Amino acid sequence: MKRFFAFIFAILVAFSFSACNGNSQEANSDVTENSANNSVEEIYNDFLSGKITAVYTDGSEVDINDLTKMANPHPLTYALFDRNGDSIPELCINNKVEVITFWVQNGKLKFWCVESSDSKILSNGNCLATHFGGAPNHADYSYLVYSYTGNQVCSVTVSVLTKNDVDILENIYTQNVNIHNESAHAIPSHIEITKEHFDSVLESVEKIGEAKLAWEPIE
Known about the structure:
By secondary structure, the protein is an alpha+beta fold. The chain has one domain. It contains five helices and 13 strands. The protein has helices at about 1-20, 25-35, 40-50, 65-70, 195-210; strands spanning about 55, 60, 75-80, 90-95, 100-105, 110-115, 120, 125-135, 140-145, 150-160, 170-180, 190-195, 215. The strands form three sheets. The chain has a six-stranded antiparallel β-sheet with strand order 7-8-9-10-11-12, with helices on one face. It has a five-stranded antiparallel β-sheet with strand order 6-5-4-3-13. Strand 9 (about 140-145) and strand 10 form a beta hairpin. Helix 1 runs parallel beside helix 5 (about 195-210). The termini are far apart.
């Protein structure tokens, strides 16, 4: 059983690379559209200087002033990084609470994804999100996998619950696999795992490596 869940996780890690790089036809289509308009860098510069707005998935628009007000009193910073594997960088904006990633599709600046600012954007464009909570004390580590368009396609979360009861001194480790696909309901969720498996999952994600983002202030 332990090998089965290790195998499932290995498949998801491998899938994360194909999710970022597997839709070359869609990527090439967008590159063709973008080349006929302003370059991606020009579009990002226009957004950062307040000349244009970006569009969220619900159709609402946001400009850089809106993001600045949301970040106050923290200054906004930005970085460029290719998150979907099409060799075109996405625009990541950090307001010290969350990181919002935008991309250019068909010449328009659009929302790609949002993550907490204490999460790690990984070198393959995916994310390692962490959450620490109490009552009872616990720590969650979630490996989030995105599609080419920024939709979350699957996640693996491993958690450790620290028991505070006098009679129970050992921690409890669990794993949850969530695939956003109706055909994947057969994969078990919220199972208890060993510390060795918990450590191996985190080690596998850490081996992917954190992305080297050069954050710059938005003036």
